[in-house]
Write a sequence for this structure.
């Protein structure tokens, strides 16, 4: 088992990463809880809920709620019914809320934990690759119909217990999605790691390599958030690929493209802007080949309507005034933030969408 310790502005917490950790919760947990409320989703529950319930000791009263799988559950309605459930169960300040699932469950359960009784303890048990990113850093949120993650708060877990064995039941699409954020962390930090990823076929990654990628990813995220928990400076770099990603998710619908797939394509666009505006020399072609080799939905790029997409970006909460702020790369490991006008952005995006002549088909 690997343990990383993260210092947030609210607390200090451990991230335990290893195989089979879901069976060792009662040994790993730092405190005892009389009442535990597990929030999970309808895909994760059939595989792991029973095991996790029985991993808590007999002295603990464990309840659970299964929300429908999918981004639709990060809603006001679902949030509200979970709060009803917390009250029904008479959870108090000494209770623990557990997020057993991917980033969706983590964000939703975390937001419940951050607001119920002004905050109760919260344990993250990530079950996706993508959740290596979402489970660390203390951002929790639900969606509004105007956009993703518009209602939320900063709230750190008391601990993260990451059992890498559960990745075994993820679909290829979700593996691809998770690696979108892994690629982001590699590009923000380390040329060699990025190269290693470019030599990787995602369906062939073994447990040992997976643990390395996840641990490295968590380290990058942790270093950035430790330096800047409230997103004033450095943390903005973690938005690499995300400005276009959020627009793509909204444009094509939450069913058509996953968050991490959208991020992977958003990163390609950020590379294009970096080349055209700050003259960076980045591996645009080899990254495009890697995306295609691993079946990222590049065909959607040719369906992008630049003007509408730029309009959508302005709804994104990273917009300051009229200019859209983009995280670019001067080189691998060296991010920077640049403001771009609508006009410039539409011009580069038009180019991006059509000039690759067949690349995205
Ligand atoms: N808080 C943050 O800092 C942060 C960062 C990045 C992303 N996010 C959020 O995370 C969400 C995306 O996370 P995600 O990609 O993990 O999505 P997700 O939680 O929706 O999981 C993806 C799919 O995989 C299923 N699943 C999860 N674990 C499984 C397992 N072990 N075996 C089989 N199926 C499994 C889920 O039921 C779901 O259908 C988005 O809501 C995004 O906004 C938050
Ligand atoms: Zn993300």
């Amino acid at each position: 088992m690997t343990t990383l310790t993260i210092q947030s502005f609210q607390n200090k917490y451990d991230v335990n990463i290893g195989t089979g950790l879901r069976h060792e919760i009662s040994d790993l947990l730092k405190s005892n809880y009389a009442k535990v409320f597990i929030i999970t989703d309808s895909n994760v529950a059939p595989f792991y809920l029973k095991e996790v319930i029985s991993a808590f000791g007999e002295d603990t009263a464990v309840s659970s709620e299964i929300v429908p799988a999918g981004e639709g559950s990060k809603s006001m309605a679902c949030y509200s019914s979970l709060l009803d459930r917390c009250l029904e169960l008479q959870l108090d300040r000494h209770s623990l809320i557990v997020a057993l699932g991917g980033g969706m469950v983590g964000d939703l359960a975390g937001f419940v934990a951050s607001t119920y009784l002004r905050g109760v303890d919260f344990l993250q048990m990530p079950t996706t690759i993508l959740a290596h990113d979402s489970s660390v850093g203390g951002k929790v949120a639900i969606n509004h119909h105007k956009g993703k993650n518009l209602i939320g708060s900063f709230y750190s877990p008391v601990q993260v217990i990451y059992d890498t064995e559960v990745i075994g039941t993820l679909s290829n699409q979700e593996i691809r999605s998770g690696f979108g954020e892994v690629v982001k962390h590699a590009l923000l930090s380390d040329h060699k790691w990025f190269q290693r990823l470019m030599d990787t076929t995602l369906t062939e990654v073994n447990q040992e390599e997976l643990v390395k990628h996840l641990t490295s990813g968590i380290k990058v995220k942790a270093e950035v958030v430790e330096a800047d928990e409230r997103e004033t400076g450095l943390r903005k770099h973690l938005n690499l690929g995300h400005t276009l990603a959020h627009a793509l998710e909204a444009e094509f619908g939450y069913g058509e493209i996953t968050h991490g797939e959208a991020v992977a394509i958003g990163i390609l666009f950020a590379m294009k802007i970096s080349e055209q505006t700050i003259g960076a020399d980045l591996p645009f072609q080899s990254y495009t080949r890697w995306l295609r080799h691993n079946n990222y939905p590049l065909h959607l790029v040719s369906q992008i309507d630049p003007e509408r997409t730029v309009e959508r970006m302005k709804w994104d909460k990273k917009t300051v005034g009229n200019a859209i702020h983009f995280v670019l790369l001067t080189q691998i490991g060296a991010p920077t933030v640049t403001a771009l006008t609508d006009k410039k952005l539409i011009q580069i995006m038009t180019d991006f969408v059509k000039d690759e002549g067949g690349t995205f088909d």
Remarks:
- The chain has a mean pLDDT of 92.
- Residues 41, 43-44, 47, 69-71, 74, 101-105, 107, 127-128, 130-131, 133-134, 137, 139, 148-149, 166, 169-170, 174, 177, 258-260 surround nicotinamide-adenine-dinucleotide (ligand 1) (CB under 6 Å).
- The chain has two domains: 2-169, 172-354.
- The domain at 172-354 is CATH 1.20.1090.10 (Dehydroquinate synthase-like, alpha domain).
